[in-house]
Design goal:
heterodimer, A: about 725 residues, alpha+beta, Penicillin-binding protein 2a (Domain 2), Beta-lactamase, 4 domains, 7-stranded mixed β-sheet, 5-stranded antiparallel β-sheet, 23 helices, 31 strands, about 35% helix, about 25% strand, B: about 375 residues, mainly alpha, two-stranded antiparallel ribbon, 2 strands, globular
Chain lengths: ~725, ~375
């Protein structure tokens, strides 16, 4: 009996060896479970919930973009995404119906939809961003044919009702409503809001789980932004730029910015030619489009994206240029601030200056002779500025270069801003100072230039320019608003006041084309060689401000490579500024102040005198400062030339007819290239009235460049001829 | 008949109560989890959430009755009919080869009347009985190669051959493991196990050289990173890991598994343990493993105190069978070892298997009635 029982050896092998092995085995398994469920649990949980739940994304409404007067510039509207759930399509009959129906409604190839219908999931997008009428068509199709498996979810689409208005600053959004460019990208987080989701638990067959797990995450609506941009001012600026691009055959686009000099608010900012925000991927430049036709395949792709990039780019913040003579305001301010300016000091200009053996020309090859400080600025004399720069020396010159913000980004709330390329403080030798003094050698962005320019005339304050004024919630309540940000004072008020006077003189007495009748405008023109461009390539620019005695607005226009034959800032860019100013200033309710001379030639509107008796008619005209010539002997006025409602300068002659059939006619002579005086004489001699538009008539260097009536055409005697004049003095 | 019963009862002692309690606890736990894991699947495919639990409960009741009954039948009857039992099991293994294949394998015998059973289940029991008998008979010569190795290898070889014809690899591995374990306890020398391990290594090398490195590498890749190819062969494993991972420490709560909603294929079968972890967490999983550990320990205690070597080896084999199945099953669902098809005793759905397991527990309980407890 005892012999047949288990031996000790058996018991040991069982209870020591085998049991230990089993315990070890179980412990390994327990560790493995801990590893999966606790240590790596998150990984598996996420994967599990990804397969157990279905997400439906709800796109938030993207906020709008308004101009400073709350006019809509960009807004979102509801569109729909059509998707199918292939796993719900049970029969081939249904599949065919869906494929046929969607392909005809949405104009998509059948094969594409067919392939998607065989996917093993519940979410295959067929088409995005479809609009209401199409959606209605699909809905009735689903209803009529009792379709299962087609779904529609709401989405939003961005609309830019004003097309290419301010396109380079507004930017645009991509297919997922994400901001891709400009302000749309810069303020993405604010505009976009947060996506919402409906998360519901589904079993592997796509049906709801019995415990009905469903969670709704509401989308957070995007906020709106209000710009400092004023729609009207922007329009004036864009209109003027469009004109200059055409008249001067601009090769590398023209750009302009208008800024409130006291706050740094950007009132308008444009680069032309630009693009339509609703179709940002199209190439809008005719020449570029023609050039693209030469390419194909990958080359076409690269070239197209280069062209797109080009039309999108905001020139004012992304393309540094040599500011040329506009920069002289910085040199002059520093020179004054450091106390170098002496009333009795005269700069000498023989037409060139030699610095360390390098000869630098003045734009006036015959030289300006002796000029005082103010005159040097007015005539933009290069040797005078070389002397100023040399007096300042490297340290002080660089100090002002830096304090005027030309070594740093302006900080404007737009994406992609760059800082210029400048000579480092240590690298300045006499030649570098000399050329830098009149605006060559260093590159700055137009944005940097206008903030520096504003600092010279606003009391000396360098401001941080900004373009978004406030952020609004959905109901239009202001959530946040932005105000002016003074970076630092760079020159004293006294120096700034003096700069205002000098720059006003530069426009009013120097033959500048930035002159606008009735307004005091200050400004400085610039023409610069493009150091990295072709030898003849120039950038013409002009920076102006108004009113000169109490500046409110500054406008900088830069025209990159005009190819009309004219390149000088005063000829190409100054008229653009004048053009902009003549629209903006009345819009801003800035009072006109006419000079004596201006009052003499003020425009008057001719009243209607037909039917009046000759005596009272004569009196009416005389009271308005008009001359009268009567034809015929009757008492009643039957006709008049010019017609009523025409605006003519004071001193024009109105012809009144008191009898039928003897209207006199004249042949229009050629006024082009005549000086204002000559043109005036010719008009009087021809029996015509004349009106000058554009620059001031008081410079003999001004010339007529355009007349509104064709040479040789026959017009009534006394008709008004409107001529454009331009002072073609180069002025640096 | 009544007299025989009375006599049997009189001659036999009290059964091992802790072991019986453990069986009931594990069985109840298993049935609850079977219901929880199967009702979604049952609802979708049979339109009746109770489809599986109803059947399994019936088999459990029958099984428990059989267990109680068998606990009264002296195990010596088994000793008497060793070769008959083995002969029947062997015949079944042959008969099954003529059955229509299911999923490419012939593993089930259909009995007219709708019942099916796996002859490998019968053979498991038969091998345990046969090996217990061989060790009981030849214990003193177990140290020799002729008695300690040859007969066992012969029978295992025959069984393995027949089972691989089905083919039924997991069953073969299971029977082989139980057999080897019994030989070890029965006294076969260590050196033969070392030789066996060496042969195993050689076998693996042989497989690699015949099937090629790539085939093995593919299988291993699927095992090491099941997410690399979640659509195909590793789909079950991936879903199992997702269930276990979802459980965390405390689990999602009883009945709250999400993976059982048709993500994990047939959650009531081999992968029921992943649902246990998903619902009851790491804690629940540990409780299940500890319960099985206690069960094995108690089984071994009974074995160690058995009246004779036959009873001991019988108890060892039957207990170890459960232990090895638990290890292999949990090893598979946690992707610790490559996927084979082994169910979790008392948990997985399968009526005949449950009934067999309970009946075999009856044998252990009967052995416990004859245990010799030393007076302490």
């Amino acid at each position: 009996m005892k012999r047949s029982g288990p031996t000790l050896k058996m018991k040991n092998r069982l209870n020591k060896v085998i049991l230990s092995l089993i315990v070890v085995g179980f412990l390994v398994l327990i560790f493995k479970i801990a590893f999966i469920s606790i240590i790596n649990g998150k990984f598996y949980r996420e994967k599990a919930s990804a397969q157990q739940t279905r997400d439906v994304i709800i796109n938030p409404n993207r906020g709008s973009i308004y101009d400073s007067n709350l006019n809509i510039i960009a807004q979102s509207a509801t569109v729909w995404t059509v998707f199918i759930s292939p796993q719900d399509i049970k029969t081939d009959d249904m599949r065919n119906k869906i494929v046929d129906g969607l392909s005809s409604i949405l104009d998509i190839e059948k094969n594409i939809i067919l392939d998607k219908s065989y996917k093993k999931n519940y979410y295959e997008i067929i088409k995005k961003k479809i609009e209401k009428p199409t959606v209605d068509e699909i809905r009735s199709f689903i209803k009529e044919k009792k379709i299962v498996g087609i779904h529609l979810v709401e989405d939003t689409k961005r609309y830019y009702p004003k097309g290419n208005f301010a396109s380079n600053i507004i930017g645009f959004t991509g297919s997922d409503n994400q901001g891709l460019y400009g302000l749309e990208a810069q303020y993405e987080d604010i505009l976009n809001g947060e996506k919402g989701r409906i998360v519901s638990a589904k079993n592997a067959k796509g049906n709801d789980m019995p415990f009905g797990y469903e969670k709704l995450y509401d989308p957070k609506e995007g906020k709106s932004i209000v710009l400092t941009i004023d729609e009207n001012i922007q329009h004036f600026v864009e209109k003027a730029l469009n004109e200059v691009v055409i008249t001067h055959k601009v090769q590398q686009r023209a750009a302009a910015v208008a800024m409130d000099v006291n706050t740094g608010e950007i009132l308008a900012m444009a680069t032309k030619p630009d693009f339509d925000l609703n179709k940002p991927f199209e190439i809008f430049d005719e020449n570029a489009r023609l050039a693209l036709q030469k390419f194909s395949g990958d080359d076409l792709k690269t070239q197209t994206s280069i062209e797109r990039e080009k039309q999108w780019k905001n020139k004012l913040i992304t393309e540094p240029y040599e500011p040329g003579s506009v920069f002289k305001v910085v040199t002059a301010s520093g020179y004054m601030e450091e106390g170098f300016k002496k009333d009795n000091h005269y700069f000498n200009c023989p037409g060139y200056v030699i610095v360390s053996g390098v000869r630098m020309k003045c734009w006036k090859l015959s030289g300006h002779g002796a000029t005082d400080f103010a005159q040097a600025m007015v005539v933009s004399c290069n040797p005078a500025f070389v002397e100023m720069g040399t007096s300042l020396g490297a340290n002080k010159f660089y100090k002002y270069f830096r304090s005027f913000g030309l070594t740093e980004k302006t900080g404007i709330d737009l994406p992609g801003e760059v800082s210029g390329i400048h000579i480092k403080e240590k690298a300045y030798g006499p030649v570098e100072i000399a050329s830098s003094s009149f605006g060559q050698s260093n590159k700055v962005t137009a944005m940097q230039m206008i903030t520096a320019f504003s600092a010279t005339i606003n009391g000396g304050y360098l401001l941080e320019p900004f373009i978004v004024k406030s952020i609004l919630d959905k109901e239009g309540n202001i959530l946040e608003s932005f105000d002016k940000n003074i970076k630092r004072q760079v020159i004293s008020k006294k120096v700034s006041d003096e700069m205002k006077i000098i720059l006003e003189k530069a426009v009013s007495s120097g033959g500048s084309n930035a002159y606008v009748k009735g307004y005091n405008i200050g400004g400085k023109s610039g023409t610069s060689e493009k150091l990295d461009g072709s030898k003849t390539a120039r950038i013409s620019s002009f920076a102006g401000f108004a009113p000169a005695d109490n500046p409110r607005i500054a406008v900088l226009v830069m025209v990159d490579e005009p190819s009309s034959g004219h390149v000088f800032g005063n000829v190409v860019a100054a008229p653009v500024v004048a053009n902009i100013m003549k629209d903006i200033l009345p819009y801003m309710n800035i009072q006109t102040q006419f000079t004596e001379e201006e009052l003499k030639t003020m425009g008057v509107i001719i009243p209607s005198l037909i039917g009046d008796d000759i005596k009272s008619g004569k009196n009416k005209l005389k009271n308005q400062g008009l001359n009268v010539r009567v034809v015929g002997n009757s008492d009643k006025i039957l006709k008049q030339t010019p017609d009523s409602g025409t605006s003519v300068p004071k001193g024009s002659t109105v012809i009144l007819y008191t009898q039928e059939d003897d209207e006199e006619t004249v042949i229009v002579p050629n006024f082009i290239d005549l000086s204002p005086d000559q043109a005036n004489k010719l008009a009087v001699n021809s029996g015509l009235n004349i009106k000058f538009v554009g620059g001031s008539t008081k410079y003999q260097t001004s010339k007529v460049i355009k007349q509104d009536k064709v040479v040789g055409s026959v017009v009534k005697k006394g008709s008004l001829i409107v001529v454009d004049i331009l002072n073609s003095d180069q002025l640096g | 008949m009544a007299r025989i019963k009375k006599r049997l009862y009189k001659k036999q002692g009290k059964l091992d109560v802790p072991f019986l309690i453990l069986i009931f606890v594990i069985l109840s736990f298993g049935l609850i989890m079977l219901f929880s894991s199967s009702y979604a699947y049952a609802y979708y495919y049979f339109n009746d959430s109770f489809h599986f639990i109803k059947k399994q409960s019936i088999f459990a009741i029958v099984g428990v009755s059989a267990m109680i009954l068998i606990s009264y039948i002296n195990y010596n009857y088994i000793k008497k009919y060793v070769f008959l039992i083995f002969g029947i099991a062997l015949s079944c293994l042959v008969i099954v080869l003529f059955m229509p294949p299911l999923n490419g394998a012939r593993r089930w015998i259909n009995i007219p009347g709708g019942f099916t059973f796996q002859p490998s289940e019968v053979m498991k029991f038969a091998i345990i009985v046969l090996f217990s008998y061989l060790i009981y008979k030849n214990y003193n010569k177990m140290g020799t190669f002729l008695y300690g190795v040859i007969p066992f290898m012969f029978f295992l070889g025959v069984v393995a051959f027949l089972m691989l014809l089905q083919p039924h690899l997991s069953g073969t591995v299971l029977i082989g493991s139980i057999g080897m374990l019994m030989m070890f306890v029965g006294g076969t020398k260590y050196r033969y196990f070392i030789i066996a391990i060496l042969i195993g290594v050689l076998g693996i090398i042989l497989i690699v050289s015949v099937r090629g490195i790539d085939y093995v590498a593919d299988r291993l890749a699927g095992w090491i990173d099941p997410f690399s190819d979640p659509t195909d062969s590793t789909f079950q494993t991936v879903q199992s890991l997702l269930a276990i991972g979802s459980g965390g420490v405390m689990g999602l709560g009883l009945g709250n598994s999400r993976q059982k909603y048709l993500y994990l294929p047939e959650p009531q079968n081999d992968f029921i343990f992943s649902i246990v972890v998903e619902e009851l967490g790491f804690i629940g999983a540990t409780v299940v493993i500890v319960l099985f550990g206690l069960f094995i320990y108690r089984g071994f205690v009974i074995a160690s105190k058995s009246k004779d070597k036959f009873a001991m080896m019988l108890a060892v084999g039957l207990t170890a069978q459960i232990g090895i199945q638990v290890m292999l099953n949990i090893g598979v669902v946690t992707n610790t070892i490559p996927n084979t098809g082994i169910s979790l005793p008392f948990f997985s759905y399968g009526g005949t298997a449950l009934m067999m397991q309970l009946a075999q527990m009856g044998v252990i309980l009967n052995i416990s009635r004859h245990c010799i407890y030393e007076k302490e």
